């Protein structure tokens, strides 16, 4: 039995909560996965996994063994990277997840520079605003706007994104163009609901370094950035969003900036990854590339 391979299979089963999913993820025959786990449990003399009709979960011994396996496999990957050509040319699959707007307007247009530098890294990119369980779903790194919500993950700050207040021309024709915050008493907003935390967001302004939040009347609330913009373009009220995400619509004239004299708080852009991926060469070079990308003029992160 190849114990390191058995450990790798075991950790994927724990993370994906199933033998079939782990086999598909590792591109192994399902029967081979079952045999490996039986051999591993026999070798250790303990039961590692509890099997039910719905899912697979680790036993107490299995949970403890999983933590050690994750560290050992991470150390093995790092050691091999140090003493092989992969230190200069990392290879393998890198699974990343990010909001659709960040992917569409910021990361994916610039990816040819990354893949040219690291041609042996294969990228799997998820674009969505929903919460992602990095361990269970086998994701190496996520990008998120706003505050990092999971203290169990390593957070790498990338940028502070300028935000602006927006409305559609049709909405402004109907409701009038606000000139002061007092004018907003006669306006409405599109409410954004965080898919990760369920928090509801009103409009926020910085007045003499003091945060002022306004919750205007609303007809529509959404939990995705694309839906947020679409509702604004449809005339349902004011929104606030990062400038990079809005600048194409501003250029096309489907949205207009309002209240430019009133500053909106900046939004943090952060890369998050599990502690056991901290030494991964693939994760390291990708996050380092993101830091450089976010510092490049013309990204729209800063006006």
Automatic annotation (TrEMBL):
Keywords: DNA-binding, Transcription, Transcription regulation. InterPro entries: LysR-type_TF_proteobact-type (IPR058163), LysR_HTH_N (IPR000847), LysR_subst-bd (IPR005119), WH-like_DNA-bd_sf (IPR036388), WH_DNA-bd_sf (IPR036390). The keyword rRNA-binding does not apply. Transmembrane segments: none annotated. It comes from the Bacteria. Residues 1-59 form the HTH lysR-type domain. Belongs to the LysR transcriptional regulatory family. PANTHER family: HTH-TYPE TRANSCRIPTIONAL REGULATOR, LYSR FAMILY TRANSCRIPTIONAL REGULATOR. This is LysR family transcriptional regulator. It comes from Pseudomonas reactans.
